[in-house]
Amino acid sequence: MDSHHLQKISLDLQEAFLSLKNKHDVFSFLRDLLTEDEIAEFSLRFDIAKRLHAGENYKAIEHTTWASSTTIARVAKFLKGDIGGYRKVLH
After folding, report:
1. Domain check: are 75 and 46 in the same one?
2. pTM recorded for the entire structure
3. pLDDT above 90: residue 1
4. Calpha distance 28→24 (Å, rounded)
5. Contact (CB, 8 A) for 72 and 58
6. Do both 44 and 74 map to the same domain?
7. Distance, CA of 67 to CA of 41 (rounded, Å)
8. Continuous H helices in the chain
């Protein structure tokens, strides 16, 4: 599925996130939408992105988060990629 198609079919989900007013509301929505394991996985990926953005190396991240090198590399790819979602949040 290409990025344009994904963006189009996820419009309602995007609007739902934009309608939330605070962290509690966001967590409540995430908890209804996702399993605990999915929330943990997304949280781990975001933590990896923050660490990479701060200049931490792969081995240190792997050691402290227990994330696989594949997951770290995937996050790094998107952090440096054209879409820029991580960068918009991390500035």
Report:
1. yes
2. 0.86
3. no
4. 6
5. yes
6. yes
7. 10
8. 3-9, 11-19, 23-33, 36-53, 58-65, 69-80, 85-90
